UniProtKB/TrEMBL annotation:
Transmembrane segments: none annotated. One of its GO terms (molecular function) is ATP binding. This is Zeta toxin domain-containing protein. The keyword Nucleotide-binding applies. It comes from Mesorhizobium mediterraneum.
């Protein structure tokens, strides 16, 4: 294992050597990125600009594969920040040694490459699909819409436990294969921040004209909910379904996991605790902390389907579900910080979700009985738009709750044999697949024909 001193020496060396100048970045873009990633055809009369967003390991790449079935890959530019990071010199070498310094010091270089690739596709009037874990570029969206692009936002609604687990699991498997160039490094703070950003983006997008359609989807591409403009680009949004965007997103991300799913997650963390190669890249203290907090989060799960009207004997489970949604709201607001925490009407849309669900499942009289959330952050709302009176706390780890002595840490022997015999289906798989032609040979068309669609990178 590398010592802290040797790691610092490596970081300083890479920082000096691999901070790209604008000239170097431009050369890489024109020589390597355009040659291997740029779309081949364009000139479409009605092109589409599709943003697919979600936290790391939420299943964005899987969702994009399904969406690509609707469009000709020769006319569709897929833009992935993870893919672009692989063009940073020495980045893969650094990450195999547990260092993120190359991509950290070149963060703005990657964003510039992303925007340049989008602009290239706009000039050629090609379809554009952007995979992102952060806020989309609204300037480019407005420009594209002005010249006739139809803009759409698809948010992949994956629960925090699943994506946090998948992020660490695929990194461990990437290490075993010796290449993690297009795999997001496990970063708890970045994961939680991205998880928290998307409800704000969803709440803000409903009231803006940036998108002609907003959809909440699963990683399979299945549409859970969608809003779209009824007639023309300036027309009102038409809701498809009974609930709003925020309620749809919060229900989907807090829907209780099945027992098999929970067992698979626990099995993954047991495996990671025993992985020597993984221990060389993450401090053992962090891993033990994550395992304990995941165990606590799994204990808060209830056998309740929020898409059905609860029976009388499920009232207690419905109350627990509403409390879990409230905890999630508090977690989101506590993590996000500036500038979102002062946008009061956006805060209101997020923090009112549990009240809407509470009335839907339990009736108005249940509000007093369910009581406040036991989260470490519970903002108090004023009587106008509900701006929190207290400042957001520092960004937290995966679960924002007090630990108790009742944490469940199952041993591998306690996990069912059926779980061990197969790879968890809900998690992502590491494969050579990517959207870049340099990785796929003839590109997406041949990859689809060969059936090589099982990879996952974000």
């Amino acid at each position: 294992m590398e010592t802290q001193e040797s790691a610092e020496v490596l970081h300083k060396f890479l920082a000096r050597k691999r901070k790209l100048t604008s000239t170097e970045a431009k050369a890489i873009f024109e020589r390597d990125i355009l040659g291997s990633m740029a779309v081949e055809k364009g000139g479409l009369e009605n092109p589409i600009f599709l943003v697919v967003g979600g936290q790391p390991a939420s299943g964005k790449t899987s969702a994009i594969r399904q969406l690509l079935n609707k469009y000709d890959p020769d006319y569709t530019q897929v833009v992935s920040e993870n893919e672009l990071k692989s063009f940073l010199p020495d980045n893969n070498r650094a990450r195999l040694r547990g260092s993120h310094v190359v991509e950290e010091i070149n963060r703005f270089v990657v964003l510039t490459w992303r925007d340049q690739l989008i602009e290239y596709a706009i000039r050629h009037r090609s379809n554009i699909i952007v995979e992102t874990r952060d806020t989309p570029n609204y300037i480019l969206l407005a420009r594209a819409r002005h010249i006739g692009y139809k803009t759409e936002l698809n948010i992949v609604a994956t629960d925090r436990i699943t994506s946090f687990t998948a992020m660490h699991d695929r990194y461990d498997r990437g290490l075993s294969q010796g290449s993690i160039a297009t795999i997001t490094s496990p970063d708890a703070k970045a994961h939680d921040l991205s998880y928290s950003v998307w409800p704000f983006i969803a709440a803000s997008a409903v009231c803006s004209d940036s998108f002609a359609r907003i959809a909440i989807i699963r990683r399979t591409g299945e549409i859970i909910f969608e809003n779209k403009q009824a007639n023309d680009p300036t027309g009102p949004m038409k809701t498809i379904g009974e609930q709003g965007v925020m309620q749809a997103l919060m229900i989907a991300r807090n829907r209780p996991l099945g027992k098999t799913h929970r067992d698979e997650i626990q099995n993954i963390w047991n495996k990671l605790e025993q992985s020597d190669r993984f221990a060389r890249h993450l401090p053992c203290a962090n891993l033990k902390s994550y395992t304990a907090e995941i165990g606590l989060a799994l204990n808060n799960q209830v056998d309740f389907d929020p898409y059905k009207i609860p029976a009388d004997d499920q009232r207690h489970m419905a109350e627990m579900f509403v409390r879990n949604v409230k905890r999630d709201e508090d977690f989101i607001v506590a993590n996000i910080g500036d500038p979102y925490c002062y946008v009061s009407h956006t805060i209101k849309r997020i923090t009112s979700c549990h009240n809407i669900l509470q009335e839907r499942f339990l009736g108005k009289s249940a509000i007093a009985r369910t009581g406040p959330s036991d989260s470490t952050f519970a903002p108090q709302e004023d009587t106008t738009w509900g701006t929190p009176h207290q400042e957001p706390l520092l960004r937290s780890s995966i679960v924002k709750r007090k630990r108790t002595a009742s944490l469940v840490n199952q041993s591998p022997q306690q996990v069912s044999g059926a779980t061990k015999l197969q790879r968890p289906k809900f998690l992502v798989e590491v494969s050579p697949f990517s959207f870049s032609k340099r990785h796929t040979g003839a590109g997406m068309a041949n990859d689809a024909a060969l059936g090589g669609m099982q990879g996952e990178h974000s």
